Amino acid sequence: MTIREALRSAAERLELHHISNARLTSELLLAQVLLVEREYLYAHDDRILTDDESQALEDHLYDRIGGVPLQYIVGRQEFFGRYFHVNPSVLIPRPETEYIVEAVLDRAKGTRGRPPRPLEILDVGTGSGCIAVTLALELPEAKVFATDISLDALVVAHSNAARLGAMVQFACMDVMDALSGRFDFIASNPPYVRRDEITYLQREVREHEPHVALFSPEDELAIYRRLVLDGEGMLQPGGHLIMEIGLGMEERVLGLFGPAWEKQPTKTDLQGIPRTVVARLTK
Ligand SMILES: C[S@@+](CC[C@H](N)C(=O)[O-])C[C@H]1O[C@@H](n2cnc3c(N)ncnc32)[C@H](O)[C@@H]1O
User: Fold this and answer.
1) Please, is 180 exposed, middle or buried when counting C-beta atoms within 10 Å of its C-beta (0-12, 13-18, 19+)?
2) CA 131, CA 140: separation in Å to the nearest integer?
3) Distance between CA atoms of 52 and 223, rounded to whole angstroms?
4) Where would I find the H helices in 128-221?
5) CB of 189 closer than 6 angstroms to any ligand 1 atom
6) Ligand 1 atom nearest residue 125's Cα
7) How far is the C-alpha of 189 from the C-alpha of 234, rounded, in Å?
8) What distance separates the 2 farthest-apart alpha carbons in the chain?
9) What is the pTM for the complete model shown?
10) Can you say whether the dihedral through the CA atoms of 105, 106, 109, 114 is positive or negative?
11) Ligand 1 within 6 A of 65 CB?
12) Ligand 1 proximity of 221 Cβ (cutoff 6 Å)
């Protein structure tokens, strides 16, 4: 079978199973099998696939039709213009999480040259490392730290940092319990889905993404409470706490901040959903 025929047949099968972006998905899966970029497929569309290559494509199609997210099959996801390796130990980075990076960068620019020391930034629940690694690369003079409760996630984050050339100090812990020091920014995209909301999640998410990354241990505010409470002791005066929130959570999350905080406007995503809560420690 030629590349052209394989792509046509793969796209037809994906469409039959209601997989979105069937043609693009076929191209990405075959490109992954052949370890080439998508453009190669067009330039060599009459190349005959070997039996092993055809079988590998078949395996990928089987997984995708069975609900495995494309990113776990191809092993990567783009975030802020860079590719991050992902596997089922880590949440697949979402586009809206880029707002956290933007919120830090916007405010970090305002502090350049002041304080007369490198900025210190902490990412709590780093997962693939997408936030911490991106900030370390965008702010090369900053000291970036990242925590996660999952050792498997930290292995992925560490390898992403090494591959992309980012200096990040990773540590395995519950939220930021074992850290001391004062940061200029604490950023976090914590787990915020309630266990009893599991049936509302898309099947792909529910069955394939790590539950420790999705579900809050008690009610959905559990980790936010700790970030606000501990953040008060672990931010520099004037430091910022920047957190991603889920649908309908803005009011309750903003309600966690006491008088020591100045709440800043929440960033809304393209669907108009409030996504990124920012508060500045005033004292
Ligand atoms: C929603 S994911 C976010 C991952 C990544 N920061 C991103 O935005 O794609 C939440 C992350 O928090 C981690 N996590 C869950 N509970 C935690 C806890 N108590 N302390 C530290 N990390 C935790 C999970 O392992 C997961 O990697």
Assistant:
1) exposed
2) 14
3) 47
4) 130-138, 151-164, 203-208, 211-214
5) yes
6) 12
7) 18
8) 68
9) 0.94
10) negative
11) no
12) no
pLDDT tens per residue, range 72-129: 999 999 999 999 999 999 999 999 999 999 999 999 987 655 667 899 999 999 999 9
| Gap from CA of 55 to ligand 1 centroid (Å) | 35
Q: Whose CA is nearest to atom 19 of ligand 1?
A: 174
Task: Quick: pLDDT tens for 154-202.
Answer: 999 999 999 999 999 999 999 999 998 899 999 999 999 999 999 999 9
Looking at residue 201, the DSSP 8-state letter turns out to be: S
| Residue percentage of the chain with pLDDT more than 70 | 98
119 CA to centre of ligand 1 in angstroms = 23
Question: Please, which pLDDT band fits residue 217 given cuts at 50, 70 and 90?
Answer: confident
Phi and psi for 113 in degrees, rounded to 5?
Answer: 80, -10
Alpha-helical regions (H) of 17-86: 22-34, 38-43, 51-65, 70-74
Round to whole Å and give the CA distance between 262 and 71.
38
User: Mean pLDDT of all residues in the chain?
Assistant: 95
Note the residue count of the chain.
Answer: 283
